[in-house]
Amino acid sequence: MANQLFRTKSLEVLLEEMKGEQRLRRVLGPVALTSLGIGCIIGTGIFVLTGVAAHDKAGPALMLSFVVSGAACIFAALCYAEFASMVPVAGSAYTYAYATMGELMAWIIGWDLVLEYAVASATVAHGWSAYFRDFIGLMGIQFPAQWAGGPFDITHDKGFFWTGQYFDVPAVIIAAIITVVLVIGIKESAGFNAGMVIVKVLIVLFVIVVGAFYVNPENWRPFAPFGYGGLFASGEPRGMLAGAAVVFFAYIGFDSVSTHAEEARNPQRDVPIGILVSLAICTLLYIAVAAVVTGMIPYDMIDIHSPVSNAFIQKGVTYAGILVSVGAIVGITSVLLVLMLSQPRVMLAMARDGLLPRSFFGAVHDKFRTPWKSTILTGVFVAFAGALVPLHILADLVNIGTLLAFVLVCASVLIMRKTHPKAERPFKVPLVPLVPILGIVFCLVLMGSLGWENWMRLGVWLAIGLIIYLLYGRGHSLMNTIREEKTALYDRQPSTYDKL
Length: 500
Known about the structure:
The protein is mostly helical. The chain has 20 helices and two strands.
């Protein structure tokens, strides 16, 4: 059993999978991949989480929080880029773990990616609903409160309680619309996303340029009212590092580019470009927006729900607030599209290996060439979770799960350099082992800056995944089937087995 759990999947087998009928269509170039990355990164983080992080965690030191989170992501992004150029197949970190750490670790990280993409999608659907309701409110349309949120919540002071609401209707509607778009096809989805990316980047540049005229440097004093710490806090984490752990959600998205390596026209070149360029652009924009928002108004007056648009409204620039609200709706929509686009591709890779039912999760539509069944299932999950589960619970799960995935990817680069030193690497991580080690350290620091409840929830999620693997995945694993076939062949013809 131990041999099976830690058996790796060879690069030759991974690349052979690209030749079958169930492979995805190669239609994405470097611009489309970069657009997908930006489309997933710029959204909920910049339009929503800047408020929570500045008001409750870091103050003006939020600028440094984005630098720390961005640094952790840059180290991880370099590792993702190397793997994506070596193994241009669907699956992202799951596939990389299978090639380096074995089946059990691959399952763990695959299950972790389900947590990242599916739960992040539900979180983003929440944010989209809030901005949509605020926007139509500015137009004089009041959305019924009982249809604008989930039925329960859990807080430190109140515990579990009923909210009096039914479910979040706008979150369900946007999840359904995005699901339909994604089933139609990757090319159409990428084009739809590219249009939204252009709009929201223009809005972000508008915020930076126009907001700079309203910046008062006095608002940056004190620069770090909660300090620079937040690591392994006994109570609620506060400080610059705690802020970095919160805004880390803002960077989730660059790794989604690697899940589309199988759909890239020239993955060895285009996927690393898409990952690194999208992350670099968004990091600079994030730092600039954080500087502008915390400079426009004192950190303790920043609205935690709609910080960017509200900052302009507080300054009396109402038209700018409305414009930013529109940009937020567009931006968050594109984030939701890319997250829901990525999730089925991870499950497709797991199904190909037999760890999930291949007839369902591995099914590719004859006409659209998309994993349509798992896309619909993802849409149903996002709709239900986004409509019923509290926002803060979803967001906390996403951050710690993604950080764990980044740690494992950085470690996988170190392992692969030892086990396959001569493998072809069209893109190579520079300064190995320094860069992967720094990626591991930065991500572990951010994980330590999250509350203990997040560690507990992550443990429960991984335990559920382990049960599923033991009950289904281990027995249906393709690698296990190959082993049984070889054993049977050995029983009949030992000499033939020796040649395999």
